[in-house]
């Protein structure tokens, strides 16, 4: 099985499983070998249940908490290694832009008092 994380409007797990390479709404591009795990099938299932408390569907954010963030955390716990950096590069770039924009807006709209 393949696990992923997606958005929905409820405060419950956004983690789901599908047949490998067949996630609905997405086009499979390529497999990236990330390593092996020593966990049993039952231990992997228990890990996904544990991660589900941190990955609710209503907390999905395209830039700050997306399916690649979930995948990287799951891979670290399964193999000890995160996903390659290029996979979530656009989200990191978007996060940096949002940070700078928020800082700019804070500076631009600092409230002041006239005495």
From TrEMBL:
User: Key word NAD present in the record?
Assistant: no
The record's section on PROSITE patterns has:
PPPDE
Give start and end of each PPPDE domain.
1-102
Q: Does the keyword Thylakoid apply?
A: no
Q: Name one GO molecular function term.
A: deubiquitinase activity
Going by the UniProt record, its keywords in alphabetical order are:
Hydrolase, Protease
Superkingdom, taxonomy of origin: Eukaryota
Q: Name one GO biological process term.
A: proteolysis
Its family remark reads:
Belongs to the DeSI family.
This protein's name: PPPDE domain-containing protein
What is the protein's species of origin? Answer: Linum tenue
């Amino acid at each position: 099985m393949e696990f992923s994380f997606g958005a929905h409007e409820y405060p419950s797990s956004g983690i789901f499983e599908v047949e490998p390479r067949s996630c609905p709404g997405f086009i499979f591009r390529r497999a990236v070998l990330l390593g092996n795990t020593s966990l049993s099938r039952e231990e992997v299932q228990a890990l996904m249940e544990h991660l589900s408390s941190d990955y609710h569907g209503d907390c999905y954010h395209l830039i700050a908490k997306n399916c690649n963030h979930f995948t990287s955390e799951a891979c670290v716990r399964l193999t000890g290694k995160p996903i390659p950096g290029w996979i979530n590069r656009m989200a990191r770039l978007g996060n940096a832009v949002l940070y700078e924009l928020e800082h700019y807006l804070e500076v631009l709209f600092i409230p002041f008092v006239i005495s």
